[in-house]
Structure prediction request, 139 residues.
Amino acid sequence: MAWWIWIGAGIVLALVELLAGGELWLLFAGLAAIIVGLLAGVGMTGLAPQFLVFSILAASAFFVRRRLTVSADKTPVGSDSLVGETGTAASEILPNKPGHAEFRGSRWTARTASGQAIEAGSRVRVARMEGITLFVEPE
Prediction:
């Protein structure tokens, strides 16, 4: 196949991906097609080797993207990501009376995780969450 067909197909695939705002599958296939087009332009002849190189590059990109996605899925999101964060006690937090703490610009209901009183204004760390209540301990 002519080198310019590969490059044209690669550009079309990349543009469709970028305009559609997908998950980069077509972008990787487009980049593989562009690379095959460049190789065809410098002398790689024969349809079979071109499709073989395209398949290997596209499959490799699939596995690399998959690995990146799997590692990204393990990061905590939302309120679960507050565990381990440090913030400030907005009010006194007593063992038998909840108070408030501020984390990332938001005020949360907080209880003491260690059973000891925490003074207002002191630095605290989130030990765990139960519902929307943070259990904090002094830092």
Summary: The longest strand covers residues 123-130. The mean pLDDT is 87. The beta strands are 86-89, 99-103, 106-112, 123-130, 133-138.
